[in-house]
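User: Okay, second chain of the day. Same drill as before: sequence in, structure tokens out.
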Amino acid sequence: MKRTLIIGAGGQLGSELTLKLREQRGTDQVVAADIRPLPAELLTGPTTILDVMDEEALRKSIEYYDIGEVYHLAAILSAKGEADPIWAWDLNMTSLLHVLEAARAYALKVYWPSSIAVFGPDTPKEKTSQFTLTNPTTVYGISKLAGERWCEYYFKKYGVDVRSIRYPGLIGYKSKPGGGTTDYAVDIFWKALNGERFTCFLEPDAHLPMMYMNDAVSGTIQLMEANAEDVQIRSSYNLSAMSFSPEEIYQAIKTLIPDFDIVYEPDFRQEIADSWPHSLDDSPAREHWGWDPQFDLDQMVRDILYHLREALPQT
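Assistant: Same drill. Structure tokens below.
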């Protein structure tokens, strides 16, 4: 059986996808790749240092490990992208084209993540539909929108089996924040458990679509394992689980940690958040391949705090 290659395996989503796929398919079947050394938990299976911007190195890895499926997760996220737009565009787009060309050459199945960043200030905010105005205002969103078009192009033009999800904000506890506008909802848990006041860079009522990492991982794998005829959208699927504001997640945490405190100091990331939807309509994903999230806000908060407490040193 051909192996799966996860590019960007050291990231927040990549690390959890790697572990789950190894659990399901066997440790030897999933190759974890990143430009930096990987964390110890991923070293139990095959790993490689890979710069996806090096097209020859990518193809050598595909041949050496006998790859049949690629999850291409390496990207520069929204906030970091605004600090160096040309670098972000180059990495996000060139790396995707390297993967798509490799998929064309080696008949690979490809997963590539898009984002709610493809939407913009003129997009309807509530229950944003699958097909609507997409006028992003960040280089991250621009690159994701262009990537969606490339994915559909390679499917229609060359028959590449490429699949994609427009992720909302992803919240997990196994990795630290990676430079995204929704990462406040990751960092807030660490501050709460450390007894620190949390300084939020968004306004208290900044509602955004969000998803617990457990749902993101299961939904991604579900899409990749769906029958090809059921994957009717080859640009990228809206996917949703919950929507909340910083004040709402703060109050959910405060219910369990009463002494927790928060202050609001909005910065440039608030303008990014203002251009994104408040909630998503993901009915095509539910109808086409059975998407059904398992976690709401309160369930997620309880689960994250439980696992983080288990991981803290015992005194």
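Residues 85-106 form the longest helix (22 residues).

User: Thanks, on to the next one.
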